[in-house]
């Protein structure tokens, strides 16, 4: 069966407006034409898509199902347009960069901004993932470049030092833990936490690690950014776990205490990883070079990092 995009857009507009006339206007159709198209769509599907009620039209269960699929189709079309539009503007180079939450929020914005200003013809496809997921994607060739936390096996990947960071506990200034220099995570499992939202690589990694040790974080509230975690924690909503770089970047105007987390996984040595036995495209190599040029001078030697073969960070 073939679907007409005009019919799907009309159907979605009517569903969202709960009114045929307003939906038709949104779809730039006359009401009579819209009514005819809707009737033909229902006939071809063999189901009723709307039912009348006091406030207008309401999708049936079949209509709700179609509406969900229609929205997915529109989203995919928008993504297709976004992916193709750079070619119309003369942008030809594509580089895939997968990174964890820490890198995306704290380091890559400035570094990518500087790189892309100097290379406007390059388009970067970036995805946020956990470090293990990134390692798999770079190893398989799905991603050209990855930014991960911790050291990586040296057999398939080359790791270049990028940034050094550390997970810290954030508390209100008056909290009993605020005077501590460091804390074990087991000491605060009875406290409520403010966390970055579920689905983020940072959230997934932390929750998995704590679960592996037999504990569980009592998550009181989830928010969409490290800055929100800091503000909530400073206000006493709950304790927060964030990278130190985020606390320093976003927390200058909010009073809170920072306590080091005394756990092996709290170390956040970020590395740029690429496949060992694969040649990068010239554009990908230029991005790697730019990211490496931005690193602080005190980062450890890349070869020493590369030769290590210990367990990488879960995020």
TrEMBL record:
Q: Does the keyword NADP apply?
A: no
Q: Which residues form a coiled coil?
A: none
Which one of the record's GO molecular function terms can you name? DNA-binding transcription factor activity
Transmembrane region(s)? none
Question: Where does the record place the HTH lysR-type domain?
Answer: 1-60
Report if keyword Iron is assigned.
no
Q: Where is this region: Disordered?
A: 295-315
Q: GO CC terms on record?
A: cytosol
Q: What InterPro entries does the entry give?
A: HTH-type_LysR_regulators, LysR_HTH_N, LysR_subst-bd, WH-like_DNA-bd_sf, WH_DNA-bd_sf
What keywords appear on the UniProt entry?
A: DNA-binding, Transcription, Transcription regulation
Against Pfam families, the record matches this protein to:
HTH_1, LysR_substrate
Q: Which PANTHER family match?
A: HTH-TYPE TRANSCRIPTIONAL REGULATOR YBHD (PTHR30419), LYSR FAMILY TRANSCRIPTIONAL REGULATOR (PTHR30419:SF2)
| Protein name per Swiss-Prot or TrEMBL | LysR family transcriptional regulator
